[in-house]
Design goal:
binds zinc ion; mainly alpha
């Protein structure tokens, strides 16, 4: 890993390093940055992974393998702030502070989250965040923002942990001759790339849930965590719910909605709802002594409704319950089978077991 001062940010093509402590009207970049650094230290203590926001206005995150750097653009960080503020503004999670749920959707065509929130940057002001002085609501905002950013950061870290940047697949069973270890297709193929994405999503989900488990089962919770535990994340089921909600919010932010099955087959990333569905499939494998198999199934079944309720009420739009249905059907099942065929080549089996 190169010393931070020597890293040339130009090569990442995401703009220069953002000074997170100096973003006008937004102290939350510094908060997200501190949390991202802390969780990266926890998930990779022996081989450090660095983190930075960059100045790019577009919505983008990335991993640099050479310098072991996770990068999130200003545009994505700001969008996370705007979506979480919209959720808190709309009165979701009324057990926090004083909130009245407001939801009067108008008859407009469904829009992407980014389009719905495009008008303004986030402002840490009374006008933008009317709950700003309500300690409980502020804590809710901070917690949601932190979880959404964590999913993004852990996804990028997972690419590094699984050594996706080495551009070589894992060799597979050692009985195979070395010549058989070469990739079947060029690693730039869309299916290989999409396999790496689904592996990073799955790893991010498991790491994220594990972090919440560690944090909220500790014997001595600080005052803020006590409040969060009491109102939102008291049980492993509730912590799973938040983990899945964070992923749902991220994929809603990333979905432009402009893909088709044809474009999906050529893209480096599967469509956002497809990735969300794959996380629900991965969550079924979660092993936790405090969550029974039927409870796990029920949590995952409910997760899409909670995700939709939070985002749709937050954006004051009609329920978009058909979002995940868009990737149902034979053609998407075939796409999944083709991605799945590539997956074992791109996952570090030791990491998946320990995750
Ligand atoms: Zn990725």
């Amino acid at each position: 890993m190169t010393a931070v001062s020597q890293v040339d940010f130009a090569k990442f093509e995401m703009g220069q390093k953002l000074d997170a402590s100096a973003v006008p009207d937004n102290p939350w970049f510094a908060f997200m940055e501190a949390d991202a650094k802390a969780i990266l230290e926890r998930v990779s203590p022996k081989s450090p992974i660095a983190f930075a926001f960059t100045e790019l206005n577009g919505v983008k995150a990335g991993a640099n393998f050479e310098d072991r750097y996770v990068l999130v653009s200003f545009g994505l960080g700001d969008l996370m702030c705007r979506l979480c503020a919209a959720v808190v503004n709309a009165g979701m999670f009324p057990e926090f502070g004083s909130a009245t749920t407001r939801w009067k959707p108008e008859m407009v065509l469904p829009e992407s989250v980014a389009t719905s929130l495009k008008d303004d940057f986030f402002h840490w002001s009374d006008a933008y965040c009317p709950w700003r002085l309500d300690g409980d609501r502020q804590l809710l905002f901070a917690f949601l923002l932190c979880q959404v950013n964590r999913f993004v950061v852990l996804h990028e870290a997972a690419h590094i942990l699984h050594r996706h940047g080495l551009r070589l697949p894992f060799p597979g069973p050692s009985v195979r001759p070395p010549s058989a270890n070469k990739p079947k297709a060029p690693n730039t193929s869309p299916m290989a790339s999409q396999a790496r994405e689904l592996i990073a999503d799955s790893q991010a989900f498991h790491l994220h849930f594990g972090l919440l488990e560690q944090e909220f089962t500790s014997a001595s919770l600080d005052e803020m965590r006590q409040l969060l535990a009491k109102k939102l994340v008291a049980t492993p089921q509730a912590r799973l719910r938040i983990t899945l909600l964070a992923a749902f919010m991220v994929f809603q932010m990333l979905d432009s909605g402009s893909w088709t099955i044809e474009s999906a087959r050529l893209s480096s990333h599967p469509p956002a709802p497809f990735r969300m569905k794959a996380i629900y499939a991965t969550a079924i494998d979660l092993k936790h002594p405090g969550i029974s198999a039927p409870e796990l199934v029920e949590e995952i079944r409910q997760a899409r409704f909670l995700g939709s309720a939070v985002v749709d009420i937050g954006l004051n739009r009609f329920p978009q319950l058909g979002w995940l249905l868009k990737v149902n059907g034979k053609e998407f099942d075939e796409l999944f089978a083709d991605i799945y065929a590539e997956m074992s080549a791109w996952a570090d089996p030791d990491l998946l077991r320990s995750g």
